[in-house]
Design goal:
86 residues; mainly alpha; Peptidase
Length: 86
């Protein structure tokens, strides 16, 4: 993935921004085709809050501590939970 995407994700994983700003940034990357997800089904239960561990993992990805595949699984989890609308 492109370096600026990781920088953007690192910034968005900060506790200084809201959950909606974090999710909006990830949705923008998906919408622009910069993050491509395999088909992911959404569960019937929709969550409103982003778990803290999500932002931690996003930061780890931005810092190259987890793989692109792990990051995609993280985003798939957000889609399944209805946190990210795909």
């Amino acid at each position: 993935m492109r370096c600026w995407i990781k920088n953007n994700t690192n910034w968005r994983s900060s506790t200084l921004i809201s959950d909606s700003e974090f999710i909006g940034g990830i949705e923008d990357l998906i919408e622009e085709g910069l993050i491509i997800l395999p088909p992911t089904e959404r569960s019937s239960v929709i969550e409103q809050k982003v778990p803290n561990w999500i932002k931690n993992n996003a930061k780890w990805w931005a810092d190259d501590l987890i793989s692109d595949e792990d990051f995609v699984q993280l985003i798939q989890y957000l889609v399944k939970k209805g946190i990210i609308l795909k």
